[in-house]
UniProtKB/TrEMBL annotation:
InterPro entries: CBD2 (IPR001919), CBM2/CBM3_carb-bd_dom_sf (IPR008965), CBM2_carb-bd_dom_sf (IPR012291), Glyco_hydro/deAcase_b/a-brl (IPR011330), NODB_dom (IPR002509), Polysacc_deacetylase_ArnD (IPR050248)
Signal sequence bounds: 1-16
Single annotated GO MF: polysaccharide binding
The name this protein goes by in its record: Cellulose-binding protein
Pfam family of the protein (one): Polysacc_deac_1
Region (Disordered): 207-270
CDD domains listed in its UniProt record: CE4_NodB_like_6s_7s
Length: 366
C-alpha cells in the first residue's frame, strides 16, 4: 500500500554522514534535542505524539525494527507529524563485537522495515542499542546515517515516578544536549507525563527544541499543516561535546591501537559538564597543535576517587586512579589543527580534582 501524502521524515542529512557520534545540537546554547528509543509502542507512543503536537515540538524517534513491523501505522503517524526517524537496529541486539557485514545487514533490514511502513522515508540517524557501538558508526555512515549518541540520559527504562523524571531532566539539562528517553520497551507513561511538564517550563525559561547535529537545517517543523517549534537562534555554536550517561556496557570496538605511532605537540582541555554529588559527567578535548598527524593515539591521565562507569569516542580502561583511553578504530588519527572530543560518566567517592597531567602517546600535553 502506498502511503500517499506523507512527509518522509522531518530532515535529511545536510552533508555526507560521518562516523562521529553526535551528542549535541548544532546551535548549542539554550537548545536541546528530544530523542525517544525502542518504539513504536501502542501503549505510549500515541500519547507522546499527542503531547509533542500539543506543544509544537519535534523529536527524533529511534525505531526498533521488530516493533516497526508490528505497528507500521504508528511509524506513519510519527512521520505524518513531522518527526525525524532513526534506525535503532532490528532486534535491539548488542553490536559491540559484531563484524561490519553483520551490522550492515541488520541496519539494512531495519531500514527496509521502516520504508515498508513509509515508502521513501528519510532515516538520517542510527543509534546503537545499549550505546555499544563497535564498528557500527563507520557502517552507519557508509549507509548515509549519522551515529546518534546522547548527552543526557534520565534513566527512564526503570520508571522511578514522574516527579523523579522531571527532577532529573531539570538537574541534568545542559546547553545543546541530545536527551535520551524511551517511548517503547516497557511502560513509558511516566516519561510521557514528564515530557508534558518540562516542555512548557523550559520554553518559558527561553529554551528551544531542535534536532541533533547532522541533520539538514535546525528547524524540524517542516511538515506543512503541523506547526513546528521555534528553533531559536541558528547560530553555529556546537557547545561542549556530548556526554553519554546512558546504558553501561559501551563497547567502541577493537581500536587496533599502536601507541608507537607518530605523535606531535598536543593540548588537552578538561571540563566537568554536570555534577550531581556522587557522580559527574566530564568532557576532554585533545587538540593536535603540531604539524604531523597523531596516529593510533593513547591518552593517559589520573583521576583519584573516581570510577568511570561509561566512556565514549574511545576505548576506555581504568586501573586504580589511572585512566587510559585508546583511539577508536573509526577515528584513529588526529590531524594537525584538529581535535578529538571524548566524554565520560563517573562515580566519585571523594574530592575529584581535575587531572594535573595528560600524556598522549607518551608525550606530556600542555
Amino acid at each position: 500500500m502506498c502511503a500517499a501524502g506523507l512527509a518522509f521524515g522531518a530532515a535529511a542529512p545536510a552533508q555526507a554522514a560521518t562516523a562521529d557520534i553526535v551528542t549535541r545540537t548544532p546551535q548549542g546554547g539554550q537548545t536541546v534535542a528530544l530523542t525517544f528509543d525502542d518504539g513504536p509502542n501502542p501503549q505510549d507512543t500515541p500519547a507522546l505524539l499527542q503531547v509533542l503536537r500539543q506543544h509544537q515540538v519535534k523529536a527524533v524517534f529511534c525505531l526498533w525494527g521488530e516493533h516497526v513491523r508490528q505497528y507500521p501505522d504508528l511509524v506513519r503517524q510519527i512521520v505524518q507529524q513531522g518527526h525525524t526517524l532513526c534506525n535503532h537496529s532490528m532486534r535491539h541486539s548488542d553490536m559491540g563485537n559484531w563484524s561490519a557485514n553483520q551490522i550492515r545487514a541488520d541496519l539494512q533490514e531495519t531500514n527496509a522495515a521502516i520504508r515498508q511502513a513509509v515508502p521513501g522515508a528519510q532515516i538520517p540517524y542510527f543509534r546503537a542499542p545499549y550505546g555499544s557501538w563497535g564498528q557500527s558508526p563507520q557502517v552507519a555512515a557508509e549507509l548515509g546515517m549519522q551515529p546518534l549518541g546522547w548527552a543526557m540520559d534520565i534513566g527512564d527504562w526503570e520508571p522511578p515516578g514522574t516527579f523523579e523524571l522531571v527532577q532529573r531532566l531539570n538537574q541534568r539539562r545542559t546547553p545543546g544536549a541530545v536527551i535520551l528517553m524511551h517511548d517503547g520497551g516497557g511502560d513509558r507513561s511516566q516519561t510521557v507525563q514528564a515530557v508534558n511538564q518540562i516542555i512548557p517550563q523550559w520554553k518559558a525559561q527561553g529554551w528551544t527544541f531542535t534536532l541533533p547535529d547532522g541533520s539538514s537545517g535546525s528547524d524540524p517543523g517542516n511538515n506543512p499543516g503541523d506547526p513546528g517549534n521555534n528553533p531559536g537562534d541558528p547560530g553555529n555554536n556546537p557547545g561542549d561535546p556530548g556526554n553519554n550517561p546512558g546504558d553501561p556496557g559501551n563497547n567502541p570496538g577493537d581500536p587496533g591501537n599502536n601507541p608507537g605511532g607518530p605523535s606531535g605537540p598536543c593540548d588537552v582541555d578538561y571540563t566537568v559538564v554536570n555534577d550531581w554529588g556522587n557522580g559527574f559527567q566530564g568532557a576532554i578535548y585533545i587538540r593536535n597543535t603540531g604539524s604531523s598527524p597523531i596516529n593510533n593515539w593513547t591518552l593517559q591521565f589520573s583521576l583519584p576517587n573516581v570510577t568511570i562507569s561509561n566512556g565514549w569516542n574511545g576505548d576506555w580502561t581504568q586501573s586504580g586512579s589511572q585512566i587510559t583511553v585508546k583511539a577508536p578504530s573509526w577515528n584513529p588519527t588526529i590531524q594537525p589543527g584538529q581535535r578529538a572530543e571524548l566524554g565520560f560518566v563517573a562515580n566519585k567517592s571523594g574530592n575529584a580534582s581535575a587531572p594535573n597531567q595528560f600524556t598522549l602517546n607518551g608525550n606530556v600535553c600542555s
